[in-house]
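Sanity check

After download, print the first record. It should look like this:
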Amino acid sequence: MRFICLFAAALLAACSSQPQQTENYLLRAEIPATSGKQLAASTVALSAIRVATYIEQPGLVLATGDGRIHAARNHQWAEPLQVSLRRFLANEVSAASGMDVSASVLPTTATRVNVTVDQLHGDGQGAALLVAYWEVETGAQVSSFEFAQRQTLTSDGYAALVQAEEALLRQLAAAIAASIQTG
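Expected structure tokens:
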């Protein structure tokens, strides 16, 4: 009888301690793959990418209200967000503008773009929010811009949040591309 009780207790303990699997998400631009293409000296480059401290962490972030946030433990970015954003925005701005946009500043860079992502998170109403600011520096001229948009999630869950955040970041890239072309 004692053996049966110990076995039942061990079985219950094993069932209750199943670790939850961590899901990792990549932020990747939807541009055609090219190989063997010679990289031209870019005249436009992303100079600085700044990310608010509360979102510069592995876990996807939800604003739960009353100024509180929750960073997911089991739904994380696969690489540092600042690194992903630099590559994503360079590719998307390049695709939207038709210009070669470098993810790093080169000596030949004539136009520099500095981006600050102030908010990038889900909210309690089933939407993603992106608030960002950027400056376009061409010589001594500096122009400042801002972007603030919400995107409703297409379904519940973190995968839908990532899709909505990517859609918002594509809109931001299009706005940056337009500011470069008119500036």
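If your output differs, re-run the checksum step. Summary of this record's structure: The chain has one domain: 41-182.
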